[in-house]
TrEMBL record:
It comes from Corchorus capsularis. This is Armadillo-like helical. InterPro entries: ARM-like, ARM-type_fold, IFRD, Interferon-rel_develop_reg_C, Interferon-rel_develop_reg_N. It comes from the Eukaryota. It holds the Pfam family IFRD_C.
Amino acid sequence: MGKRNKNQRKNAAMMLDSDDDSSSVSSSSTMRSDRMSVFGTEEVEFNKDTLLDEAVDALFEKRGATREKALGMIIDAFNNNLQYEFVEKKCVTLLHQCLNCIKKGSSKEICLASHTIGLLALTVGSGDNAQEILEDSITPLSQALKSGSELSKIALLECLAIITFIGANDPEVIEKSMQIMWQLVHPKLGSNVATAKPSTAVIAAAVSAWSFLLTTMDGWRLSPKLWQESISYLSGLLDKDDRSIRIAAGEALAVIFDMGSLDKFAAEAKGLSDGSLPEGNKSKDGFSHIQGLKAKILNQVRDLSVEAGGKGSAKKDLNNQRNLFKDVLEFLEYGYSPETSMKIGLDTVQTSTWTELIQLNYLRHFLGGGFTKHMQENEFLQDVLGFTPTKKHLPRERMSNEEKRMYRSPNSALNKARTQLLNKQRMQSEGRNFGQFAINVGDE
């Protein structure tokens, strides 16, 4: 067995060492040419499982370029097909080799390994394997975030967000990951560890990852002090010059408002100032501060929704900002969440809350070109986003009109099955005081 594994790794290394230039490691065309040159046959004849096994074996090699190519081939395979059988056999091996790549690899290798771990978690779905991925990864990822390049930090943040979203079964575990992200961009005063100031891209990535995980939380679990700190910080980010930071902060605030947390926080502080607890002027000052924050944010959102383009401003980015903050403004003033729909093959996935929209956009961004394939075949992703592809069960052309109506009915067994997970998400939005935000701004 040992000899066979050694030979497999040698073959894998020979296959992947044939070209030192790994700049296009994730390119599908490069993968195809590599496969044909290795096997000497038409691509259709190669064994996919063998190719993946050899790519994993190549992760044991010393040459960084070899490991990078192997990771690129694994990512390509995970994007193009759901590798359920493969991860059943190789989940632990692949995870720990990726963690080794993060510990000792180049910036590019860290990015590839981080993305691979995220894809691995998305493939295994919720359960014991996902919990193990999170438990084994959270410390190496947090350590790697303390140094490294801008690109590697962004990849590490995205990986941490994905594996926590899937593998955490306890709010305290989610809070731990959120705190790691928060500490990266907003370190506590008095820290003995000197850290470099994060770039604008890292700040935007950290805020987006933080708000993605916030969609899974019950706002009541976080203390008023933490809410006030986070909301104040996010409000400050709305004034930054970088548009990506403003957009990320706007989305995070939208999630907070969607959860009703700021109104609950304000009501709690108002109750204290009315004498529910003997807090003196402290609680009254806290309530006034919250009201001031709400007024400030409303004005910021209104300004950003109509901002004129400055010199060198990309029109697409400017339009994205205007559209986002118009939606946020409408939500703050009238309580209307943006309703969106996206075509996935012959079907459509829809969102009706900020929480659902943020989750959809984050998962779509992470999967990139593999998003459609995963949406059509990945049952975990379908459950999270409330999506059931028609052709998964019966081809559309073979379904009668009556069958289609039954299938799409909210009382169908399929829709009832996916409702359980969605109920958890929607409970976060209960208690929202629609239309109260603008009204309360002027209250004393």
